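ESCALATION

Customer reports they have been waiting on this structure for their group meeting. Please prioritize. Original submission:
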Amino acid sequence: MRKNSVKNIRINSEVLREMSMILREDLKDPRIDPMTSVTAAEVTPDLKYAKIYVSVMGDDETREKTMEGLKKSASFARHQLASRMNLRYTPELTFVLDHSIEYGVEMSKKIDEVQQRQNREQS
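Update from on-call: job pushed to the front of the queue and completed.
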């Protein structure tokens, strides 16, 4: 299976959906912040490995604790994924911190500030 094949894209989206549900419903580690969301999933074409990109709202300490909790819960999450999906291999999960949502919020704030400044200058 090629990396960008239809089958790989479909598997990525299914893993993304299932991992979101597992993170929300099944992982009970107190280190994992409730404001954690799965933003993307990339499964290798041989289905052996998967990178799960997660975004955590909060400060650096919250992010570190959440990532530590996710890494410790990876085998349980993999077991849950295996029971929910019918794949030849259940991929080994690696969690990666994704900063894209934070970056988007920061850019949105900057745009709002520039617009407010322009409105004040025009008045």
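Sent to customer with the following note: The mean pLDDT is 92.
Escalation resolved.
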